[in-house]
Design goal:
six-stranded mixed β-sheet, 1 helix, about 25% helix
């Protein structure tokens, strides 16, 4: 379960057995949601939010902050996805303190 970003107490990570589409899990305390990155013509069109089975979803304010982060850092998320799942490389966690 590689952690790829830490931002204001939010942890952004992949599960090791993931699948397309590119997505990232975000957790804080006992809450976790899955965010799918949806592209059109090579540009991020939207970030879809899904519940994770057996987990309580992020609270609305936290979910909104996670989406803001993902919109800004989506190129890094995609690159880390490629490194981990395509190139089978380890990815480094980055700690971000402000957008």
């Amino acid at each position: 379960m590689p952690k790829i970003y830490e931002y204001l107490g939010l942890f952004f990570f992949f599960y090791a057995n993931e699948h397309l589409p590119v997505h990232v899990h975000v957790s804080v305390a006992e809450f976790e949601s899955k965010f799918e990155l949806r592209f059109e013509n090579g540009k991020l069109k939207e970030v879809g939010v899904k519940k994770v089975k057996g987990k309580m979803p992020l609270e609305p304010k936290t979910e909104k902050e996670a989406v803001r982060f993902i919109k800004k850092y989506h190129p890094g998320i995609v690159e880390k996805w490629k490194q981990f799942f395509v190139e089978n490389k380890k990815v480094k966690c980055e700690v971000i303190n402000k957008l």
